[in-house]
Each structure stands twice: as C-alpha cells, then as structure tokens.
Amino acid sequence: MPTAVDEHLDAAFAALADPTRRAIVARLARGDAIVTDLAEPFAMTLPAISKHLKVLERSGLITRSRHAQFRPCHLEREPLDAALAWIEDARREWRDRFDKLDAHLRELQADAEPAKTAKTSKKPTRRRRDHA
Amino acid sequence: MAESRQSEALRYTRIFDAPRELVFRCMLEPEHLTHFWGPVGMSTPLDGITVDPRPGGVFETVMVADSGSGSYTMRAVYDEIVEPERISWTDAGSGMRSVSAFVDLGDGRTEVTIEQRNAPAAFGEEQARAGFSSSLDRFSAYVKGVHAAGAA
C-alpha cells in the first residue's frame, strides 16, 4: 500500500516532469513571486501558467496564500528536497554500478587483447540466447 | 492513476570504451552482472542472479553486503529486450520501470542511457522489502553508510 511519502513523491515527480514547471520551481527557489512575474519569461498566457501553478500546488511543491491580494507563490522546500534526495540516491547507485562496469569492461578487453589473432577469446560467456 | 506514475525520475548516461555488443551482453548475462551489479559495499554472487532474457522473463539479483550484515533481493520482470539496443524491466513489487538504451558511437565506444520511471512507488516498495526504515532520511543515511563502508 502506498504511504503518504510515496504519494507526495509521486506528485512531486509528476509535477517536476514538465520543463516549464521546473523553471517555475527554479525561479521560486530565489524567492516568492506573483503569477504575472512568473509568466513573464515564458511565451505563455496567464491561464496556461496558472494551470502549471495548480499542478505544482496540488503536488505540495508550492503554496499560495489564500487571502493576499496578489497570492504570491511560495516554494515548499521539504517535498522538493525529498524528491531531489531520491533522485540523488538513484543516480549514485547507477554511477557506482557503471564505475564497476567500466572496470569490468577494461578487464575483459585487456584479457581479450593477446588472444585477438587467435579466434579463441577468453570472454567468459558464450551462451546461446533465445530472446532475439 | 497509471498516468501519474509515468513521470521520469531519473535519466543517467555513461559512455563506455567498449563495443555495443559487449556492453549489451554485460547488462544481460549473469557471468558479467556478477562483476558490477551490486552497489559499492555489496556484491552480487553468480548463484544469486536469475536472468530469463525475454519479455515476461525473470530478472532477479541477490545483493549481499560485504560486511556480512545482510542481503537485498531485487525482483523484476523484463518488458523488452532488443539486442543490442535496449533492455527494459519492471520491478515486480513496485512497478518501477528501468530502460537501458545502448547507442553505438561508431568509434568503438558505446553510450548507455538509463531511464527510471515510476520511481516513488518503487522507493517505498524497496524499503519495505529490504526492511529499511520508512523514513527518507534514514534511507539516505543507510546508502551513505554503505558507501562509506565501501570506501574504507
């Protein structure tokens, strides 16, 4: 069963999947802003920007004050940091894995080098594969 | 609901100084996977790797901590295997999908790109399976600990 943390991350990733919304988040990281300010760098109508803001708001990544006249948008660090931490961990896992794969490939090819003229390679796997 | 899970959480690219066929085989054959699959601080013994390389086939790896403090099993099902271009699998419990794309750069090198989707659901599932803490911070600390152990 998905936990609240999962659902928040789900929503955060869905929201961050869009480049316009990532740009809005990056802008808000520098400070609160109102919709017209946020729309300014984009060739987009205010309703289009508002739609993105609604997605961000639903994801929990931003909040908007309900009462203030201009309803400035505010970035919530906690859900963003949670999403970024997940990404960082997954990235590190693949980085480590690929570091090891790189070393493994070097070894394989170094082993194969002396046997290059003879057609018998020392490559460890010669299994038949049926997936083609 | 399915759609909200389709967001791409991670894209990771690396260029290897090796021909595409060889890199592709490394990502698919247990005899190769055993050399690099586990994260730093963990190993993946050959007898703990199951690969049934066809759509719907099993991809399972048992990773064992070098410190002897435990093991973690990844269970997945292959979605697609297109030799030598693409391998994708979905984590059986969580639904996280990983797609590996192999591009021949034409000079003996190969570019591999990993894309991971449905990540958040997988995150919770992985934690539950491995008995890790349910908190993000402690998970992060666990990973850092594993890395520190590997570096020592």
Short summary of the structure?
The complex is a heterodimer of chains A (132) and B (152). Chain A is built from five helices and two strands. With 132 residues, chain A is mainly alpha-helical.
Give your account of this protein's structure:
The complex is a heterodimer of chains A (132) and B (152). Chain A is mainly alpha-helical and 132 residues long. Chain A folds into two domains: 76 residues, Arc Repressor Mutant, subunit A (Orthogonal Bundle), CATH 1.10.10; 32 residues. A two-stranded antiparallel sheet of chain A has the order 1-2. In chain A, helix 1 packs across helix 5. Chain A is elongated. The C terminus of chain A is likely disordered. Chain B has 152 residues and is an alpha+beta fold. Chain B has one domain: Alpha-D-Glucose-1,6-Bisphosphate, Chain A, domain 4, CATH 3.30.530. Chain B contains four helices and eight strands; from the N terminus they run E-H-H-E-E-E-E-E-E-E-H-H. In chain B, strands 1, 2, 3, 4, 5, 6, 7 and 8 form an eight-stranded antiparallel β-sheet that branches. In chain B, a hairpin with a 6-residue loop joins strand 3 and strand 4. The N and C termini of chain B lie far apart (44 Å). At the A-B interface, helix 1 and helix 5 of A face strand 1, helix 1, helix 2, strand 8 and helix 3 of B.
